[in-house]
Amino acid sequence: MTDPAPTHDSPHASHDSPQDTAPDLSSRNPDWWRQAVVYQVYPRSFADFDGDGLGDLGGITGRLPHLAALGVDAVWLSPFYPSELADGGYDVADHRDVDPRLGTLDDFAALTAEAHRLGLKVIVDLVPNHTSHRHPWFQEALRAGPGSPARDRYVFRDGRGAHGELPPTDWQSVFGGSAWRRVPDGQWYLHLFASEQPDLNWESEEVRADFRTTLRFWADRGVDGFRVDVAHALAKDLDEPLRDVGDIGATGEGALPLVPPGSHPYYDRDEVHEIYRDWRRILDSYSPPRSAVAEAWVPGARRALYARPDELGQAFNFEYLQTGWDAGRLRQVITESLATARAAGASATWVLSNHDVVRHASRLMLPPGTDENAWLLSGGRAPAVDEAAGLRRARAATLLMLALPGSAYLYQGEELGLPEVADLPAEVLQDPVWEQTGRTRKGRDGCRVPLPWTATGASYGFGPGAAWLPQPPCFAAYAVQAQDGVEGSTLELYRSALRLRRKLLEGESLTWVEEGPAGVLAFARSGGRRCVTNLSGRAVPLPPGEVLLSSSPLTERRLDPDTTVWLA
Prior knowledge:
Blueprint: H1 18-21, E1 37-41, H2 57-70, E2 74-77, H3 105-117, E3 121-126, H4 136-144, E4 156-157, E5 180-182, E6 188-190, H5 205-219, E7 225-228, H6 272-283, E8 291-294, H7 300-306, E9 313-315, H8 318-322, H9 327-344, E10 349-351, H10 360-363, H11 372-377, H12 387-402, E11 407-411, H13 432-436, H14 475-478, H15 480-483, H16 490-504, E12 511-512, E13 520-524, E14 530-534, E15 540-541, E16 547-550, E17 558-559, E18 563-567
Parallel strand pairs: 1-2, 1-11, 2-3, 3-7, 7-8, 8-9, 10-11
Antiparallel strand pairs: 4-6, 5-6, 12-13, 13-14, 14-18, 15-17, 16-18
Helix pairs in contact: 2-3, 5-6, 7-9, 12-16
């Protein structure tokens, strides 16, 4: 048996009230989120307390000291709500409860109390675009039939064709295939993601009122902020006749549809902003105001709208995540991102990995233009990725990101340098993308493999038994136990960087250093402190100054390729 999560007070202890369990430490700085480092936890893959192979709230609570020692400011919990896991927890059957396999509301109270005791804020995922098909509302809609108020909470339509046998429009699911599914009485319902995730109708006042209740429910329990899933898709043009999109260009996440901004049938419509202005009034009714960040796959100028002070306040910067290892392109994206955030009155956000993308220790080593899905289908062998080189580049990318002004979002396990597990066999895959695309897209399981805490055991300390996804043998060398206190380890690099970041880096601006070799990115922050990253592929002279931190060992005042250094 491996060493499970450290013991702590029973995660099932009861408490008198949310306020008693969740002292709001963020009141000391209501703008804490503007320069925060936020650590994303994917609950089912973080730590298994009860030994069923699935991560849970008790496991997270037991491992919170790891996050406090790491030096992050907040923990963001991906969905822990009741779910059949048709989409890894983003198919929510009850937005105001905890999945029994992951714990109880008392467990959530204990987690929040412990996080606040350790000085950590708590952010929860809000999933407002859709529910699970097992949600009581959707089950009621199926029973109630066409034209009922219950169906009006969702997007039901009659089909096209002589007998309604064709989908109402050509709208496509992000996971592949039509975004419509027919029910036995002949109508079709909209699902922009998996068919088990019917889209809500945000023209319904009942839907809007229910999510106001959900916001208050979690804020009353001490939650400090919200991450809003698919924030750009809530508002839809549901006027009849519904519009096809086949003649207006790309429509997937991150695409640039060939229509005037704000007028796509179901993405990034202007009407969505009245929803978030309504939410902001609720978030601001708390002292201190609750924070929020939008997951909005839209271009920068449109992203800024979601980040306005009277809306969510921040939005994820996916342009940065999608930028390759290129000095010129990175500089351009950083400059544009800072300008966009400034124009919105927000702070910039930076992220390199999350639960939906190939881990950056592997992704940044793929040649430009690589088809990532084809790479995953090859088991990570075409092309092969040098793990050591990938880790070196990932460490350099991390120090670069952490030197930037704004909020940094870290994904669980990146502080260990974990690579993508690209060779998961087909029989263990659980991402719905795999089946919904006819097994042509491998999906996101490779970045969701449970974390290694110890160097031995059935699941490397994730829990007392096997984990819900198999971990590769190489995880032993990446385990927390194998890196803790080891000079030069990736874990210790993160700890040092976060400690220095908090102490040294102030303000929300930077100044580019113009002189220097080609392929070297350099900028100055407050007090003249500089960050220099060598992306050139060859060693260059190390600029003058006291070395505060380096992503790789330095020799003879040289800055080797794929190395970042912080200088006083």
